[in-house]
Amino acid sequence: TISEDDYKQWQLVHHEASVALVDRDSKVDAAAELIERDLKLLGATAIEDRLQDGVADTLTSLHKAGIKVWVLTGDRQETSVNIGFSCGLLDPSMRLFIISEQSQEAFESALSTAEKEMASEASGEGRRMALIIDGHTLAMALDKKHKTQFMAACRMCFSVICCRVAPLQKAQVVNMVKEAEDVTTLAIGDGANDVGMIRAAHIGVGVSGKEGRQAVLASDFAIPQFRFLKRLLLVHGRWSYKRVTKCILYCFYKNSTLAFTALWFAIYSAFSGQSLYEGWLNSLFNVLFTSAPIVAVATL
């Protein structure tokens, strides 16, 4: 404990440091060191950041469906690798390529070596591969000079894990994939740091949880848990795809039927402008054959 007089003296020093216009951070740290000493540790608390139920099964199903999964996280490299093993993105039989360099020259050398070894493994039908890269190295990989080579290496990998990445880098990675590949991208996140990534992808999915609702508000779809992504994509996604294709084909043939019969009649009527159908019949045709079949297909 400290006396009230000592605290008042320290409070004046801390106040002067907190309102300083020059070198404020170092002055606040120095003021804190005056009082944060001779302390006794009474206890500690921690929050277990564990995976939700069904994550591994969901990712396995997505891989079986031919969907490539990338993990973009702000966690440390060791934590990211452990998460990869626990959720099924990585397994002991895989060959891991870890690129974590500080200089441009070292990064270029590591990327070239990794790409050559990946090509050798892929041509020889060897083990599955995974690429792990940290945020500092990713900033160099996202440069125009190395973006194409980096994407070529990622294509050969079963999974890609980007750790220690900033929210802006998450969006940049999504944009890189959109520009380099003719694919539809989906981003899923649960926090405010995932908003940029969700907005950059073709489809954004937000997971509502304890980290706020920023990701949900910025997304196209919202789910309460990650495991519902499996049903969203592989069940409702497939149904939606079939319904949209049926609707497009139906509307095309419906309009073709109406237009080409009128065109064929115009040939025999010397293009006089005479109508083949009564006005009310045209309206009834569109109302009946536009609404009823589409509603029937949508409800089945």
Radius of gyration: 30 Å
- Supply the number of helical segments: 12
Instruction: Report the strand count.
Output: 7
- How much strand content do the residues show? 5-15%
Mean pLDDT, all residues: 87
Low-confidence stretches: none
Describe the structure in your own words.
Helices cover 57% and strands 10% of the residues. With 300 residues, it is an alpha/beta fold. The strands form two sheets. A four-stranded parallel beta sheet has the order 1-4-3-2, with helices on both faces. Strand 5 (186-189), helix 9 (195-200) and strand 6 (203-207) form a beta-alpha-beta unit. Helix 1 (4-18) runs antiparallel to helix 2 (24-35) and helix 3 packs parallel to helix 11. The protein starts with a helix and ends with a helix.
